[in-house]
Amino acid sequence: MQEEIDADAWLGWLREMPDHVTNVSRIAVLRAWSPEDDDVVPSHARGVRVGDLTEDVLRDIRDDSLLTIDYPRMA
To answer: What is the DSSP string of 17-50?
Structure first.
């Protein structure tokens, strides 16, 4: 059984993404019970800027919901 990912570790990874992939502009996170479930259709969606991303925002993702995280464009 896999342990829950530490929120600070996940937030750090999401915030540092542009340092590793310079052309990233948006990441989508879908909450689903099983990664093998290939027919999940989100019934709700929410978008946030990476600077507004908090643990509360991550924990508030409901089942079958999509969260998009937008990153500032780098010149």
So the answer is: HHHHSTT--EEEEE--S-TT-TT---SEEEEEEG
